[in-house]
Design a protein that fits this description.
Blueprint lengths: L2 H26 L42 E3 L5 E3 H5 L4 E6 L4 H16 L5 E7 L3 H10 L6 E4 L3 H5 L7 E5 L5 E6 L4 H11 L6
Parallel strand pairs: 3-4, 4-5
Antiparallel strand pairs: 1-2, 3-6, 6-7
Length: 203
């Protein structure tokens, strides 16, 4: 074999070796899929489950006005229609902002109250005048595990005559507007009102 032939064979062996290395590298170093992003606090994963079979409720008083109906987007963009929630059970709306110090002072206890009444009473946060990242920090810090509507233009706030946070509104099953508390309520007072106005039987 001539020198040129030897060189050609050597080049072919070198290319074959490189190809084998590349194939092995492809088998052992496959690209890893990036981790799925964490679900946003206050998003679709926090929507209520089925209504408990033994849910006992007080009838709403006659003549109570209808609560303003609305559809708003949760923190992850999922639409929430208020009337679909109160068709099945009472709803507590908490109007808040992440920068509201009174809201922050009360939020841990309200989050715990919402967990104790999970699925019996739907808690829905309505966040106004907020930044998305600051809102997420607030929800995670205070373990808010219920749906949160992002009310950037404060249209829901205005429909409920909320001028500044905090505020709490209680709606009966069926949509009767029972009470609103400008300035909000702490968890102990709100639990008492739930027992007086909507829940019958043990908590």
């Amino acid at each position: 074999m001539t020198g040129a032939g030897h060189r050609g064979a050597g080049v072919r062996r070198l290319l074959a070796g490189l190809l084998a290395v590349l194939v092995l590298a492809g088998c052992t170093d496959r690209p890893v899929d990036p981790p799925a992003p964490a679900a946003l606090a206050g998003g679709a994963a926090t929507l209520p489950g089925p209504v408990p079979a033994a849910l006992a409720l007080r009838p709403p008083p006659g003549g109570a006005p209808a609560a303003p109906a609305f559809t708003g987007g949760l923190t992850d963009g999922t639409p929430l229609t208020a009337a679909r929630l109160w068709a099945d059970r009472p709803v507590v709306f908490t109007f808040f902002s992440s920068w509201c110090t009174t809201c922050a002072d009360r939020q841990d206890a309200l989050s715990e109250l919402a967990r104790r009444h999970r699925d019996r009473v739907v808690f829905v946060g309505v966040a106004g005048a907020d930044q998305a990242d600051e809102l997420q920090d607030y929800l995670r810090t205070h373990r808010v595990e219920y749906p949160v509507v992002v009310d950037e233009q404060q249209t829901v706030w205005r429909s409920y005559a909320v001028r500044e946070p905090p505020a709490v509104v209680l709606v009966a099953k069926g949509g009767a507007l029972l009470r609103g508390w400008p300035g909000g309520l702490d968890a102990a007072a709100l639990e008492q009102r739930l027992g007086e106005l909507v829940l019958a039987g043990p908590g």
